[in-house]
């Protein structure tokens, strides 16, 4: 039985590869390997944190695999640079083909993203690029909030409705207070990259890039979104669950001047 590797990140666009699998490959002839990579460019030294990341990825993959119930499915998780981890898995599992979407970023609807480009250049097997039926004008597709406080309801990542949102980016030193009343969310702070035209750089001056907040928890996150360029940093909050909704309250206030 031949093996097909399907790298996915859980986004709606990456999940179009699952539909392509079901339309193209017979469950009698092909075994499916689902790979989810936690993108990280540094070494994680805390083994407990590493185990938590792998467990979260496994839970997501298990739910996604339910849509491939007619197939034999092998689930793999990894941490690191997506392109490199995909190549390592392809070699380890001796796959016949890699099926991947062009990009999961909204502004790359009609271009090949960096991960897909890496896979095409380095793969020793055939690569199928899934053409998503996306009419994208580059606009952000999640919820957008413009007030200094509010309540947000995010659907699960497998839902066709919004599972993430943008919070207002504010100049100067501010504090974002995130209080979760249901589910789990991830607060993401990213800086603009003038080369890729995406918010895909870590925040300026060592600020935290990611903060996880679970039900019943409250987090005060200090942010300066001015970054090193002309574009303000982007503040996103995503639902960490695949199926269940997440609800949180947020407020943005000025930070007290440091003495």
Topology diagram in text:
Elements: E1 2-7, H1 16-24, E2 30-39, H2 47-65, E3 73-80, H3 82-93, E4 97-101, H4 114-122, E5 126-130, E6 143-144, E7 149-154, E8 164-167, E9 173-182, E10 184-193, E11 198-201, E12 210-214, E13 218-224, E14 234-239, E15 246-254
Parallel strand pairs: 1-2, 1-4, 2-3, 4-5, 6-8
Antiparallel strand pairs: 7-15, 8-14, 9-13, 9-15, 10-11, 10-12, 10-14
Helix pairs in contact: 3-4
Question: Can you give a write-up of this model?
Answer:
The strands form three sheets. Strands 6, 8, 10, 11, 12 and 14 form a six-stranded mixed sheet that branches. A five-stranded parallel sheet has the order 3-2-1-4-5, sandwiched between helices. It has a four-stranded antiparallel sheet with strand order 7-15-9-13, with no helix packed on it. The protein has helices at residues 16-24, 47-65, 82-93, 114-122, and strands at 2-7, 30-39, 73-80, 97-101, 126-130, 143-144, 149-154, 164-167, 173-182, 184-193, 198-201, 210-214, 218-224, 234-239, 246-254. The chain is globular, with a radius of gyration of 19 Å. It has two domains: 2-130, HUPs (Rossmann fold, 3-Layer(aba) Sandwich); 143-254, Jelly Rolls (Sandwich). It starts with a strand and ends in a 5-residue tail after the last strand. The chain is 19% helix and 37% strand. Helix 3 packs parallel to helix 4. The chain is of the alpha/beta class and 259 residues long. Helix 2 (47-65) links the parallel strand 2 (30-39) and strand 3. The longest helix is centred in the N-terminal third of the chain and has 19 residues, at 47-65.
């Amino acid at each position: 039985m031949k093996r097909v590797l399907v790298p996915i990140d859980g986004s709606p666009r990456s999940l179009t590869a699952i539909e392509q699998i079901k339309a193209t490959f017979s469950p009698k002839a092909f075994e499916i390997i689902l790979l989810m990579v936690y993108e990280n460019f540094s070494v994680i030294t805390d083994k407990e944190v590493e185990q938590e990341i792998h467990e979260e990825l496994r839970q997501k993959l298990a739910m996604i695999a339910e849509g491939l119930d007619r197939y034999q499915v092998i689930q793999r998780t990894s941490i690191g640079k997506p392109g490199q981890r995909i190549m390592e898995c392809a070699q380890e599992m001796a796959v016949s083909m890699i099926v991947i979407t062009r990009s999961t970023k909204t502004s790359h609807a009609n271009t090949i993203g960096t991960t897909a480009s890496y896979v095409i250049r380095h793969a020793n097997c055939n690569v199928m690029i899934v053409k998503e039926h996306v009419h994208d004008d580059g606009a952000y597709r999640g919820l957008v909030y413009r007030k200094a406080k509010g309540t947000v309801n995010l659907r699960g990542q497998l839902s066709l409705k919004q599972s993430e949102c943008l919070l207002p980016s504010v100049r100067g030193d501010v504090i974002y207070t995130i209080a979760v009343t249901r589910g789990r969310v991830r607060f993401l702070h990213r800086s603009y990259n003038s080369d890729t035209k995406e918010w895909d750089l870590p925040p300026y001056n060592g600020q935290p890039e990611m903060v996880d907040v679970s039900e019943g928890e409250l987090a005060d996150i200090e942010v300066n979104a001015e970054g090193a360029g002309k574009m303000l940093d982007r503040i996103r909050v995503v639902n960490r669950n695949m199926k269940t909704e997440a609800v949180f309250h947020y407020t943005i206030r000025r930070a007290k001047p440091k003495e």
